[in-house]
């Protein structure tokens, strides 16, 4: 293995350990791209200071500095393990402190531009993440359509393609978390607040995970602040969903290499024919080492995302398989959940009404229990119901056996008893018929009261049973010559 290859492997590992986002991996091809990765890993600590230096100065506390006791060398393995755990915990606390400083400053910067009353974010935000090659771009349009989201999706890669961000990336530096959050907030405020939006590629670090939680809290704060004002409709209850598309590493590698091959063939065809548009050729679609480095970064990011599963609906989608199969899985995960989308008081008022998707789950067991009860506890009632079906329902159904549906009309008074009607419907349902019953009252003038001149009406109850069943399949006779 060449020295350059070994260096790149070490770089990919170092970058993954530092939590470097995949944005910095989309550098220039060839040796320049390698230098970009190396520079990014060497300058990462400096970039952390750039991210929080001005804020930390205001706080007069260096939240990135670990306690001196954690830097003391140890002589035993047990002591080393304890120290490592303590360092990890201190680092976690430091990240949270950083996130509050970063988010508050970014939010203030954006609020200074838009104004407090115009901080109107979309009520539903889907935070879409995925392994490289998992098909985020492929499934995004269908996901937006299924949720009724008309706002354009927000791609973090596009937000970070400004000249300022590109200059940082080209110099081998990460775009600061504060800048990332600030750009994201501006993009969210450009959306229609009445409908949702999908954000592709956020969060990607510990700090960004904390910032997402802080954004949710801030949206609740705004909603409470404007609830009793004419602007209350612009500050709805926020709904956050985390969606992660997953494929394993080998499939990710295969898909990206195949994507690079297809794009290269497409571009060659465009160059030859002069027809069509040139597609972007990503460096990471042609170098397996870079692909595996990106996948390692995704795995590190995923461990950050898992913390969000304690706060928001978390959808982990198996993206291995065909496009249609994966899309069905996504839509199943995103089924209607009124407890997440409705205001609390509204939900409480209607929550006792069963969902249509749930009402039939135990219908069969309930049907059997009802029939067994009536047969044992009220055999006379049960026998009359069976006789009614034999005499008035089945003959009509038999005459319409080919059509698969029949309409039974009767004025039999036994159906005026609700319990009898329930038994009749239950028996027919158990035998595989889909039945609906409608009751109508016909009023016919019969006489006039000579004293009051009131018209006396005769009421007749007519019941209509709409019965459906599997249609008979009759093959036509073929005429042979």
Automatic annotation (TrEMBL):
Residues 1-12 have a biased composition (Polar residues). Residues 1-30, 72-91 are annotated as: Disordered. Pfam families: ADK (PF00406). Gene3D superfamilies: P-loop containing nucleotide triphosphate hydrolases. One of its GO terms (molecular function) is nucleobase-containing compound kinase activity. Keywords: Kinase, Nucleotide-binding, Transferase. One of its GO terms (biological process) is nucleobase-containing compound metabolic process. Residues 76-91 have a biased composition (Basic and acidic residues). InterPro entries: Adenylat/UMP-CMP_kin, Adenylat_kinase_CS, P-loop_NTPase. The keyword Transferase applies. SUPFAM superfamilies: P-loop containing nucleoside triphosphate hydrolases. It comes from the Eukaryota. Belongs to the adenylate kinase family. This is Adenylate kinase. It comes from Actinomortierella ambigua. The lineage of its organism: Eukaryota, Fungi, Fungi incertae sedis, Mucoromycota, Mortierellomycotina.
């Amino acid at each position: 293995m060449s020295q350059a290859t070994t260096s790149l492997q070490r770089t990919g590992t170092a970058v993954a350990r530092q939590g470097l986002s995949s944005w910095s991996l989309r550098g220039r091809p060839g040796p320049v791209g390698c230098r970009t990765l190396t520079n990014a890993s060497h300058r990462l600590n400096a970039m952390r200071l750039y991210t929080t230096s001005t804020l930390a100065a205001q706080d007069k506390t260096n939240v990135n500095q670990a306690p001196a006791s954690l830097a003391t060398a140890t002589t035993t393995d047990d002591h080393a393990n304890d120290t490592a755990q303590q360092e990890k915990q201190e680092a976690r606390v430091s990240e949270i402190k950083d996130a509050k400083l970063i988010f508050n400053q970014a939010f203030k910067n954006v609020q200074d531009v838009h104004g407090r009353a115009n901080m109107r974010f979309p009520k539903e935000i889907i935070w879409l993440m995925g392994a490289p090659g998992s098909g985020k771009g492929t499934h995004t349009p269908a996901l937006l359509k299924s949720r009724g989201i008309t706002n354009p999706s927000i791609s973090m890669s596009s937000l970070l393609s400004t000249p300022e961000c590109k200059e940082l990336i080209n110099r081998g530096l990460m775009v600061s978390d504060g800048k990332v959050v600030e750009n994201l907030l501006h993009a969210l405020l450009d959306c229609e607040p009445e409908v949702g939006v999908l954000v592709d590629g956020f969060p990607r670090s510990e700090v960004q995970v904390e910032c997402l939680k802080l954004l949710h809290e801030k949206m609740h704060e705004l909603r409470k602040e404007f609830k009793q004002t004419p602007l209350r409709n612009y500050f709805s209850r926020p709904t956050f969903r985390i969606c992660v598309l997953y494929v394993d590493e080998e499939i990710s590698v295969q898909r990206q290499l195949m994507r690079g091959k297809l794009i290269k063939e497409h571009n060659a065809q465009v160059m030859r024919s002069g027809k069509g548009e040139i597609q972007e050729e990503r460096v990471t679609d042609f170098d397996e080492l870079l692909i595996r480095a990106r996948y390692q970064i995704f795995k590190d990011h995923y461990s950050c995302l898992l913390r969000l599963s304690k706060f928001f609906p978390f959808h982990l989608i198996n993206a291995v398989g065909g496009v249609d199969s994966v899309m069905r899985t996504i839509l199943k995960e995103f089924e209607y959940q009124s407890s997440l989308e409705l205001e609390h008081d509204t939900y409480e008022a209607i929550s006792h009404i069963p969902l249509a998707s749930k009402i039939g789950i135990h219908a069969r067991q309930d049907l059997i229990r009802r029939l067994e009860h009536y047969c044992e506890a009220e055999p006379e009632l049960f026998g009359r119901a069976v006789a009614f079906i034999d005499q008035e329902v089945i003959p009509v159904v038999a005459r319409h056996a080919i059509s698969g549906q029949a309409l039974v009309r009767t004025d039999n008074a036994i159906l005026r008893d609700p319990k009898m009607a329930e038994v009749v419907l239950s028996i027919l349902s158990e035998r595989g018929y889909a039945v609906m019953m409608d009751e109508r009252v016909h009023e016919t003038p019969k006489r006039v009261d000579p004293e009051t001149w009131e018209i006396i009406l005769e009421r007749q109850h007519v019941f209509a049973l709409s019965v459906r069943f599997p249609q008979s399949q009759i093959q036509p006779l073929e005429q042979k010559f």
